[in-house]
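Bump. Still looking for Phosphate-specific transport system accessory protein PhoU structure tokens.
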Amino acid sequence: MREVFRNELDELATQLVDMSIKVHEAVRLANQALRSNDLELAEKVIEADAAIDHMQYALDQQAAEMLALQAPVAADLRAVIGSLRMSASLERMGDLARHIAQQVRIRYPESAIPDHFADTFTRMGESGEKIAEATENLLSNPGLTAVPTINAIDEELDELHLSVFAKLAEEPAGALAPRHIADVTLLSRYYERFGDHAVSVSQKVEYLLTGNWEPYLSKK
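Sorry for the wait, here they are.
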């Protein structure tokens, strides 16, 4: 029975890695669609999000069955509960990539990004891809060394998010149409939240590896 349970835990870990790969691809393609105003690519991201949702459902169902049938305790219980919470964060990251693509679809054939915001959102997109890749690597090879990297990239996204609002505040009255203000505000928020969910995943991995909740509480 114990061997079966260990195999099931390994399967949960594999499913989380698979989800992170899908999320990484989703944000990469969403960024490309946003930069090039590519409606076809945006639609591809939107449609592909259903696969991430299905993966979360399958993982959560398996985890619930393990809790009911195996009654895990201590580190094993933390692993199952952690998997549930990480799957929720990864699913949300997929949703946020979809939201970016949907903003492309809403504004097409116009671009969702005013020209003078293009550089900022290029950098946000690059940071989004970096943090998705770091999350994928963390889940593929769990360890504490990746946690500071994810935190640092998240800080980059936070700073870029704030810079968008600073730039909006500097705009002369009426210089930007209300729809453009809404677009950059929403897109900036999507990237900022994408980073937050990656940090949430890294915090759960850190907790599973150390059993220490204090680092997590200090970041709240």
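Helices lie at 2-36, 39-70, 74-107, 118-140, 146-170, 178-210, 214-218.

Edit: fixed formatting.
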